[in-house]
Amino acid sequence: MITPYLIFNGEATEAITFYANAFQSNDTSIMTFGEAPENPEHLIPMDAKNRVMHGYVSVAGEKIMFSDTFSDAPASIGNNITLAIISNDKEFMRQAFTNLSKEGDILMDLQETFLSPLYGSIRDKYDIEWQFSYE
């Protein structure tokens, strides 16, 4: 499954509400950066604690995902949408991750996180950002 991931500059909660109302969806979720487990290697800035780390709205049986950026790395046209690969096939994910990262940049190596047993992200050679998440 490929899922669009929309990135905002602190307006993700507002956008989730807007799209939920527009599509008459009651299936929504919001997790803020402040709700995430603390990691001393990746401290969350105070001004980001209430920003959306991960959220979604279900539309026509599929999820549109949402997140905010930190204020020091604002989203702009070109980096405000990523594509999320959601799969239960770890081998497929590893191979696709390797293939897409050729001539690209690994933003986060595939690894276990509190959100997923296998998660990672890359920017491919065409500047398209891909997130991989095992479900």
TrEMBL record:
PhnB-like domain residues: 2-132
UniProt superkingdom: Bacteria
A Pfam family assignment: 3-dmu-9_3-mt
Name by which UniProt lists this protein: VOC family protein
